[in-house]
Amino acid sequence: MTAHGYPLRPDTETLDLLGARVTVVDAAGLLADADTLPVPLLTDAAFPAPVRQLRFTLRAATRDGRRTHHFEAYLRAGGNPAAVGLLALGLAGPAGLLLAHRFAAGDPLAGRVVAGAERMAAEASRRLGLRPPTPTVLAEPARDEAGTAVLRRAEELGLHPEIAHDAESGGRTVTVRGAVPSDQVTPAHLHAMVALVLQAVRELAGDTAQPAVLRGRSYTVGRRPEVAAAPAGSAAVTLDQVGGLDEVVARFREIAVSFQHPQVMARWGARRPQGILMYGPPGTGKTMLARALANEIGADFREIRTPEILDKYLGGSERNIKQIFREARGYRQPTVMLFDEFDSIISYAGAGGDAASQAVNAVAGIFKQEMNTLIEENPDVIVVATTNFPHRVDASLTRSGRFDVKLAIPLPDEGGRAEIIAKMIRELIDRHERPGFRMFAADVDPRALAALTPGLTGADIREVLRRVQLAKAMREATEGAPTGPISQDDLREAVAGLHRG
What we know:
The protein is built from 17 helices and 16 strands. By secondary structure, the chain is an alpha/beta fold.
């Protein structure tokens, strides 16, 4: 479903591979994800007997200075490995497969034939002065036209597939590998590798004459989630989920890179930012951005709220600030420290001469001192402060050297709101849609909704969606029958309701 330039559901392809119906979900996303961590493929798939186990992964690695995507599948089947040894003895094809099935069933005549074939192979090797064949390493089975086409396609794409057949105690295995440079990898390579794996399933099932063993079966390739992308307000938010703030996200990615490569920074004598100050109206995503930065870096997240610092007793606030920074110097993991609503902790430093102002000045003074040496004493800590009222924070607190990066987080414009709406709807689709349940109708148009929401923040847009979800759930609960998906009219009505208050 593409809503006027904003794809709300990932690309899905349906392929007919060797008789099976294969659905590939977000192939481009899978290839991109593999650049950072191994991606499991064909998980929880049920294969025909005797296949008992499949591990199929995609990962990227750098070798000899070149980034390469590696596909690897390991298939294990039950059964008597001696039966599979018929392939190694040259008894492939329909007759050999029939003999293998009869051997596995315990037919004594088949057993004598197999034993005789093994003796003949051993005697021939002895007379020729060759090493006797080992039945635990199997030759590749004969392939039919469909299997040959699968292998030829993989070769044409430059995957250079490697297929190894082995027998082991209590079963048999096939390992399928392929690799392609990361700058050349496409969904076609993924399709070809899936076909190779399904061909291996056929061979293990003794079905090289026709693809009947896979006919009528369905498989899904992709990581569409039992546990889906977390909503933007959660602790698991990432920078990819942030909409409408492209420049801010790009700046945060730069900061993450400087944090992740300390050796490069040290070689150049470069000093990464120690502090970040974000300011702007409430609900624009400042706290969410701090969490996303922590996840981008792979850091712990520590949020310091006003009650943890301010103390009604004389000297208490100063002691609390010192203790917070003392703990920060001892962190052994990369950590993002967030001082949310910074202005409520330290405001109007230097203003007034009464006791209250002097207490504020004392807290501000200690904060300055602690920030002056934090990065030298623990470079794994980065401080983020947020405020809705930047004019209430004294400039000496936020000067460069303490807060090197100052970012305005504005209200999103119309294009930004459309992007936010699209991303939030995608997250809900990923999280809640299942076969037979469609959460959003095809007429949902983020761009048209954005035109109806001037002045709304990301938090406001999330509230619009919450109201529509609640209304749909309540209607279904009270009527006792399924209701239709959320439509554009439903969303328009919710927007109007938010404007009315």
